[in-house]
Write a structure and sequence with these properties.
By secondary structure, the protein is mainly beta. It contains no helices and 14 strands.
């Protein structure tokens, strides 16, 4: 309907929190609402998409162990309806979010495990805000980019296309990864996963 949502970060001494501001189709701005309070480091929101009668927004939130994936449902007036911090084995954050055909959330992000970087896809239950599955798209150390994947695109066969960057022989190069509907990158050739079960089109198995 032409309305939308702005989001950003605010500083508070040595830490940072996040905010959202809805606006109407005529440009009239709503109230600025805090989403995450200032933490010991820096929280940041990176992407949002329309979901139900409001929005879903994703990013990273400081956590006692390391930066973690942050997902929140935001109402049309900017109120946080629910939120979740998904803790990883190392620092991780979400960079993009899309809504799948079954209304689940598909999140692209970057994680650091033992100092190595990798891109991942994660399918999230939009009500419970809990992961259904999580797949690494690159071997640790193969993907190096400031914000994780640069783009996430849904494909007609239910799969996903991710663009980002990788570093090889000291040179950073563009990278495109195609994943199937279940997030596996090794069975995603066009048409290979259409109309078959996850058990058939599965990571490490031969596609039909």
């Amino acid at each position: 309907d032409g309305s939308g949502l702005l989001f950003g970060t605010y500083d508070s001494k040595s830490s940072a929190g996040t905010w959202v501001m809805p606006f109407k189709a005529n440009g009239q701005a709503g109230a600025i609402t805090g989403v995450t309070p200032p933490a010991s480091g820096s929280d940041i929101l990176r992407d949002a998409t329309v979901w139900s009668n409001g929005y879903v927004i994703v990013g990273g939130a400081d956590y006692p162990e390391a930066e973690s994936i942050y997902v929140a449902r935001i109402t049309a007036d900017g109120t946080t309806a629910d939120s979740a911090t998904i803790v990883s084995g190392g620092a991780a954050w979400a960079t993009h979010v899309l809504v799948a055909a079954d209304h689940d959330l598909v999140v692209l992000g970057q994680e650091f495990v033992q100092g190595n970087a990798a891109l991942f896809l994660m399918r999230v239950d939009p009500i419970a805000l809990t992961p259904r599955w999580r797949r690494s798209l690159t071997q640790p150390g193969a993907a190096l980019t400031a914000l994780g994947g640069e783009a996430l695109l849904g494909l007609p066969d239910g799969g996903w296309l991710v663009s980002g960057a990788r570093k090889a022989l000291g040179v950073t190069q563009p990278m495109v990864v195609r994943a199937d509907a279940w997030g596996f990158a090794d069975c995603a050739a066009a048409g290979k996963c259409v109309g078959v079960t996850q058990a058939t089109c599965n990571g490490g198995k031969t596609c039909v």
